[in-house]
Amino acid sequence: MNPKTAELWAKQDQHQGDRFRLFSAVAAAVDAKTVFYPGCYVDIAPSFVFGSVTYLDLDKRTPKFFADVDGVAEIIANHDGPDVHEVKFIHGDYAAGVDLPDEHFDLLVSLYAGFISEHCGRHLKVGGVLLVNPSHGDAAMASIDPRFELSGVVKSSQGGYGMSVKDLDTYLVPKKPQEITVDSLHKWGRGIGYTKSPFAYLFTRVV
């Protein structure tokens, strides 16, 4: 393994195994064969549990990381995941558009990377699932997007993760009355303060 690959992964995995636990919990709740992860940086944890993952990031360090195919495969092999791994990487800006098929992926991942649901939701199959956390306002963006419907929440406790579908109507309720629009979310560039704060949300694409 290239030393730089090991160094970047060590920094990404500083809370050792955290993302592995997250994506393991997601995999237990979502039957996904194909995954798209824009804004991934070097977080290859989805490949620990999902067979085919397409990663995309603009950071200049990411092409060399993913080019170390043997090193990335070694990291993945350290986890008891699928027998076959398909890892694809695209170096680019998701907001500028991505040359990928529409309605192609079973799972779209949006973690700490901006309005991925807005720009990349078209690549998610109808019936597919968006995993999104509140950072940068993308959960709020998905909540007002008619393509998506809240179908679960991801809760974090003592370093572990679990899924819940109970009382979904009590989530995404702002602490302060406010009009949430696409324009206002772009202007604020941050998440909305909600009365409940799960780690992340699952939205199913319904149209």
Care to describe what's here?
- The chain has 207 residues and is α/β, with parallel strands linked by helices.
- It has one domain (3-205): Rossmann fold, CATH 3.40.50.150.
- The protein is 27% helix and 26% strand.
- The protein is built from 7 helices and 8 strands, in the order ααββααββαβαββαβ.
- It has helices at 3-12, 18-29, 62-67, 69-77, 116-120, 138-143, 182-188, and strands spanning 34-38, 52-57, 86-91, 105-110, 124-132, 148-157, 160-164, 200-205.
- It has an 8-stranded mixed β-sheet with strand order 3-2-1-4-5-8-6-7.
- The longest helix is centred in the first third of the chain and has 12 residues, at 18-29.
- It starts with a helix and ends with a strand.
Q: Assign the CATH class.
A: Alpha Beta
> How large, in whole angstroms, is the Cα Rg?
17 Å
Shape, per Cα inertia axes = globular
Contiguous helical run count: 7
Distance between the termini: 43 Å
Q: CATH homologous superfamily, by name?
A: Vaccinia Virus protein VP39
CATH T-level fold name = Rossmann fold
* Structural class determined from secondary elements: alpha/beta
Q: Low-confidence parts, pLDDT < 50 over ≥5 residues? A: none
How many extended strands?
A: 8
- Strand arrangement in the largest pleated sheet: 3-2-1-4-5-8-6-7
Domains counted in the coordinates: how many? 1
Order of helices and strands: HHEEHHEEHEHEEHE
The residue-averaged pLDDT reads 95
Largest sheet: 8 strands, mixed
What fraction of the residues are assigned to beta strands by DSSP?
25-35%
Known CATH architecture = 3-Layer(aba) Sandwich
Instruction: Give the helix level as a range of percent.
Output: 25-40%
